[in-house]
Design brief:
This protein has 286 residues and is of the alpha+beta class. Among the domains are: 89-219, Beta Complex (RNA Polymerase Alpha Subunit, Chain A, domain 2); 239-286, no CATH class. Helix content is 19%, strand content 27%. It has a 4-stranded antiparallel β-sheet, with helices on one face. The longest helix has 13 residues, at 73-85. The radius of gyration is 28 Å and the shape is flat. Belongs to the archaeal Rpo3/eukaryotic RPB3 RNA polymerase subunit family. It is found in: Nucleus. This is DNA-directed RNA polymerases I and III subunit RPAC1. Its main location: nucleus.
Length: 286
């Protein structure tokens, strides 16, 4: 939030982390009362609401990128930590193994199953209590049953396991939801299921089979990462690239190549090739 009472050079130090050729300075926050003489920089809720903005930059089914404008980086980091550790989801917590003759040990399979993201609204479920048992109000039940066999129609020379065997791979799509209580009616329009169908759980060969019952329960990421709703949550400071003096000719091309494609472009100004900053946001990608 800009304070017009401060001189321009002081405002720069207050609102920017400055990176020069051989040093970084103004990296510490100074947005607190009486940091600058005769300037009341105390928190004002009305000023905060007027200046704070959220701008969505990219939004897809599985990711979102947005700008938080008018807050300190520490608040952005707090949002990041909340998304990682405080937002509840449903995840596989209990695995009851009836049969597992695959080469993967029971406890390893259970761990792999727990990391499969489950598409279910956690608001529709209660947390499991220490002295309580599973009910239709706090638990989702999935069944996994797969047995590998030779494919009688496969060629004797076939080497592709997908063609040579039947059920040679166990995928997340093989988790079958078994509704309990009134769950079938409650979730008729959007039945609980794995987010992705093609997650490989195990590979089987003829004679091997897996049969398990899986219980999904509500939790948060601070208890275990399997309940974290985000694979990655990060924040960064939006870069601002200032060209102090014109960069022209071959120097402009060389300067452009110092950045990720799209950050700097070379334009023609009065017949002279000149470097211009067009999209500094890309400078922090990847």
């Amino acid at each position: 939030m800009t304070n017009s009472k401060l001189p321009e050079n002081v405002e720069l130090l207050r609102t920017r982390v400055v990176i020069e050729k051989d040093r970084v300075y103004s990296a510490s926050g100074s947005d607190y009362p009486h940091q600058y003489p005769a300037i009341d920089n105390s928190f004002n809720l009305e000023e905060f609401k007027k200046n704070f903005k959220v701008k969505i930059q990219r939004l897809s089914k599985h990711s979102v990128e947005f700008d938080l404008i008018g807050i300190d980086a520490s608040i952005a980091n707090a949002f990041r930590r909340i998304m990682i550790a405080e937002v509840p989801t449903m995840a596989i917590e209990k695995v009851y193994v009836m049969n597992n003759t695959s080469i993967i040990q029971d406890e390893v399979v259970a761990h792999r199953l727990g990391l499969i993201p489950i598409l279910a609204d956690p608001k529709e479920f209660d947390y499991m209590t220490e002295d309580g048992g599973p009910t239709d109000l706090n638990t989702l039940v999935f069944r996994l049953k797969k047995k590998c066999e030779f494919n009688p129609e496969a060629s004797p020379d076939e080497t592709d396991p997908h063609k040579k065997y039947i059920n040679s791979y166990v995928y997340s799509k093989d988790l079958i939801w078994e509704p309990k209580g009134n769950q079938e009616e409650k979730f008729a329009n959007n039945p609980p299921r794995p987010v992705h169908d093609d997650i490989v759980i195990a590979k089987l060969r003829p004679g091997q089979e897996m049969e398990m019952e899986l219980h999904c329960q509500k939790g948060v990421g601070r208890e275990h990462a399997k309940w974290s709703p985000v694979a990655t949550a990060s924040y960064r400071l939006l870069p601002e690239i200032t060209i102090l003096e014109p960069i022209t000719g071959e120097d402009a091309e060389e300067f452009k190549n110092c950045f990720v494609e799209g950050v700097v472009e070379v334009v023609n100004e009065n017949g002279v090739k000149t470097a211009k900053v067009v999209n500094p946001r890309k400078d922090t990608f990847d």
